[in-house]
Structure prediction request, 155 residues.
Amino acid sequence: MQDIIDTIAAQVGIDPALAQKATSMIVNFIATQAPAEYVDMIKPYVPGFDEVAAAGAAHAEAAEAGSGGGLMGALGGLMGGGGIAGALGSLMGGSQGNPMAAAMAMLGDLQKDGLDMSQVKDVAGSLIGQLRSVAGDEKVDELLAHVPGASHLLG
Prediction:
């Protein structure tokens, strides 16, 4: 998985540590939003998938704990760099609850770290491209078809 992250960092032109964080948060989003049977289809092709997803979950939990959630978290997200996406994610329940709330919270967290929406889409697109190269188009398309909002959020 580290090779995939290094490739993403080079393709998007961002720091490898930031690519690691963004990739782990996107992998966690996929792992938590897609039905387990579709995630399990991909795992044999991506060594370290579970570890990367766990790192993404830890980043999301830390960000949510720091934001406070709810209306105050939303206001803090607007003022603290999380932008509209982070504010909407907080108002919709953070990473808990519906998939769009989780996606918006993730986008807000990544914006706080300095990525703009275009860069997040580039990271996601590069990740999907890397997954396609190891698992094949059919499996990745099947997985993404079962991730709510994937076509809008993941490029």
Observations:
- The chain is about 75% helix and 0% strand.
- Residues 89 and 101 are 5 Å apart (CA to CA).
